[in-house]
């Protein structure tokens, strides 16, 4: 992600319809699938830290992000432990450390998502929970993805297979941001390539945007009963099986000490032309 974007996110995220609506969906699912109120929690890719305090309802929270600029914003509102992390290689946590790991719109920033998930499952205690969101549907690719240094957008079945191949038991994987998908698709298609910037976050905090927040957050009630068939994002909740045995994680030969999966390290072969 462009470093200066953290300034705009820090200023507007707490009032922006997307962040507010997404948060209500995520915590509704966490309350359902991870009701425990004690243990160790990792907000992996915590950004400016707008979830850190809320996650304290599930235990002792740790924040991690590759951006020192983002971590500086975190320190303004959070007194808990913060670490610089560059998945999959630089990950300063021992195996079986956390009861809950959350990654909210993080995995798409990482080139080697498969190996990173294998690193994350080792950091979970047996029976521990991983909750994540990612952007969905490659046909929605736009300048927004370029500006945020995404490597891909996901589809539901490949995401499920990716999680299962990493050893996770998938409890739920569903599209979200479904009710607003027609509007989202129209905006992305009409405003290509560079007529809108994620820096314009202030527009999402004004009164009309509150309607979008209520429409998005309403999906938490639908997700309680069934999976949504299509949407601009995907949400997944999965668990490390209690009987899963994993060997210690080893770096691939020839990459020791390298930051192979960094936010903003450059274009990916998986990006559309």
Describe the structure.
The protein is of the alpha/beta class and 273 residues long. It has one domain (5-239): Rossmann fold (3-Layer(aba) Sandwich). The protein is built from eight helices and seven strands, in the order H-H-E-E-H-E-E-H-E-H-H-E-H-H-E. A seven-stranded mixed beta sheet has the order 3-2-1-4-5-7-6, with helices on both faces. Helix 4 links the parallel strand 4 and strand 5. Helix 2 packs parallel to helix 8 (209-223). The chain is globular.
Count of domain modules:
1
Mean pLDDT figure: 86
**What's the CATH H-level homologous superfamily?**
Vaccinia Virus protein VP39
Q: Which runs of at least 5 residues are low in confidence (pLDDT < 50)? A: 253-273
Name given to the CATH architecture: 3-Layer(aba) Sandwich
Number of helices: 8
Keywords summarizing the entry:
273 residues; globular; seven-stranded mixed β-sheet; Rossmann fold; alpha/beta; 8 helices; 7 strands; disordered C terminus
Task: Write a short abstract of this structure.
The chain has helices at residues 5-12, 17-33, 68-75, 113-123, 143-147, 156-165, 181-190, 209-223; strands spanning 40-44, 60-65, 82-84, 98-104, 124-135, 169-176, 233-239. By secondary structure, the chain is α/β, with parallel strands linked by helices. Helix 3 (68-75) links the parallel strand 2 (60-65) and strand 3.
